Amino acid sequence: MAIRFPRIANAKQVPRRAAEGSDVPKGYFAVYVGEDHKKRFVVPISYLKNPSFQELLSQAEEEFGFDHPMGGLTIPCREEVFISLTCSF
User: Fold this and answer.
1) Angle formed by the axes of helices 79-87 and 51-64, to 10°?
2) CB-based contacts of 64: which residues, under 8 Å, 6+ apart?
3) A GO BP term, please (predicted)?
4) Over the stretch 30-56, which tens digit does the pLDDT of each residue have?
5) Is 71 part of a structural domain of the chain?
6) Within-domain flag for 45
7) Which uninterrupted H or E stretch holds 84?
8) For residues 74 and 32, is the Cβ–Cβ distance under 8 A?
9) CA atoms of 2 and 19, how far apart (whole Å)
């Protein structure tokens, strides 16, 4: 008898933590998430259509503007909040 676990989210849609300097596959983009220590995630471009993600982008624009020293898109929230939010898309 096998135990079956419910599927939490489609593996393609879960944000992946990415190593610094790694290439970003076509159809994805990199974001830096965190308050003090920033972690890099690679997320699907389809997230840009989601209203919750758009709200995060608005907050990022207010806090960091478009010229940020890390050179990438930075989301000003805790890593756990970001993962929880993006897993619900």
Assistant:
1) 150
2) 74, 76
3) response to auxin
4) 888 988 888 999 999 999 999 999 998
5) yes
6) yes
7) helix 79-87
8) yes
9) 36
Residue 79 pLDDT exceeds 90: yes
3-state secondary structure 12-77: HHCCEECCCCCCCCCCEEEEEECCCCCEEEEEEHHHHHCHHHHHHHHHHHHHHCCCCCCCCEEECC
Chain segment 8-27, per-residue pLDDT in tens: 334 444 566 655 556 789 99
Question: Residue 85: how many CB atoms within 10 A of its CB?
Answer: 18
Residue 6 within any structural domain of the chain: no
> Residue 50 is part of which domain span?
28-88
Number of structural domains found in the chain: 1
Question: Within a domain: residue 70?
Answer: yes
- How far does CA 78 lie from the centroid of its chain? 11
